[in-house]
Design goal:
3% of the residues lie in helices and 40% in strands. The chain is mainly beta. The protein has two domains: 41 residues; 68 residues, OB fold (Dihydrolipoamide Acetyltransferase, E2P). It is globular.
Length: 131
């Protein structure tokens, strides 16, 4: 089961999730069994990092000294296209319901996922550049 973990993802520049080999359900974080069918047959996979913002908040009080330099910052809950929800930083201006893509930035010696708007198919200027 353990061919990597959720927390190793950012170091590899990837968001990671577990997928159940029995029913195909996906879940985040490290779990010993599938939350849908209770199978212990789980495989770690890398996400494409694309999803839709479900909720967001602005953080004005740093949880630690490492984050004090970037206050205020935005945290977002994002429903990834693979079917699971993750929490990560987001760039200013991201909105609920907006399509986003993850990128990775280094802050205080650690790599963090950050979501930014995904380029709109119909309007090349909407949402910024997307490579």
């Amino acid at each position: 089961m353990n061919n990597g973990t959720y927390l190793e993802g950012p170091q590899r520049l990837a968001l990671r999730h577990q997928q159940c080999d029995s029913c195909g359900a996906v879940q985040t974080l490290t779990r010993l069994a599938c939350t849908a069918c209770r199978s212990a047959q789980l495989t770690w996979k890398d996400s494409l990092g694309i999803g839709t913002v479900y909720a967001m908040t602005q953080v004005h009080r740093a949880p630690s000294d490492e984050f004090r330099a970037i206050v205020p910052y935005t945290l977002a809950l994002v429903d990834l296209d693979e079917g699971c929800r993750v929490m990560a930083h987001a760039v200013d201006g991201v909105r609920i319901g907006q399509r986003v893509r993850s990128l990775f930035l280094q802050q205080a010696g650690q790599v963090h996922a950050v979501f930014r708007p995904l380029l709109s198919q119909g309007n090349p200027n909407a949402g910024g550049a997307d490579t």
